[in-house]
Design a protein that fits this description.
single chain; 375 residues; six-stranded parallel β-sheet; 15 strands
Length: 375
Amino acid sequence: MTMVHFNVGFENFNSFADITLSLAKTLDKMEIPISVAPSPIASHITRNSTAEENHLLAKWMNAVPSDLFQIKWSHYWKPYFLKELNGHLNLEFFAINYEFTRNDDNYDYWIYDAINNSSHILAVSEYSKNVLIKAGCPDKKVSVVPLGFNPLISQLYSLKPHKTKNDVKYILHMTNSYDFYRFGTDLAIQAFYQEFQDDPNVELIIKDGGKNPDVIVEHLVNIEKQFGKLKPKVQIRPKFCNKTELADLYLSADAVLAPFRGEGFAIKILDAFAAGLPVAMTLYGGPTDYANTDNCYPIAYDLIPVGECYDTQYLKIRNAPHWAEPNVQSVREQLRKIIEDPMRFEIAQKARETADLFNWKATSQKLLKLMRELF
């Protein structure tokens, strides 16, 4: 008899599938009986998952669904939004990248449903929780269950080579070409060009998790026209990476630049913390649950209306949402600091110590405790 059922499909490789797999694996190791809704499995998942993970997915999909605790993702994408839960206790993970400045207009169908349905909401951050409460969701209906970082980073960390001051500095920027502006890739490129246009010893590595790298290339071409022959080193990596390759990518970098406009939690940044990297980032939104002025290099920002992003393409958002607009001069200043600040190693060590608190076992324990309290 299973105990926890995930009504989450694996036909697409995305953060929902990835997070669900990490959480389900951890619960399984804790001997909690798991079931997962049967679905086709994306080729990216079967190719890049371990034999053990593929075996577990098959086992979970063949298990009889539990009617005790059922979990899904709250999202406006119809394949997720339309999934039904039929447990004695129904739970929905919720993350949002922006907040609302008003609540006098009718909310879009996604936010309306999250506020009014009968499920208990599992916000991935205090930020996401507060957005819902300000929108009218009862406080007792929402709990915070933070996520975890890629555990392979910790396993491989001790093998990380120690670099000298003369090493070329690699600055990593994680993005998704389908949500280019939300991740602040335009700002990362602009600030890097302005700050390192005549420095051959620093390289910006742009890791694209989407499938539209031409958008980044086009932006680079336009920026290059402004600088003529003074072109810093920029490399775009559109290749799909499995968990081991992603861990290696973080551990081969010297620092991370994340001038995002909106994030509900940002596992990408938590992964950078776990890798012991100095991170220049917008200190806004979900990441403020683990990031602060002591363990990162905060980028100054203003609050502005939400601009171009994946959400505005597919959802009619009401009630004047806003998010952060990082200050380019601040991006440049913090970008320089993560390379030259003599305290950067101490700050990165604080980040690593913070990340250790956000692991999948801690997430699973918090979830199980909450389910017992609510049941």
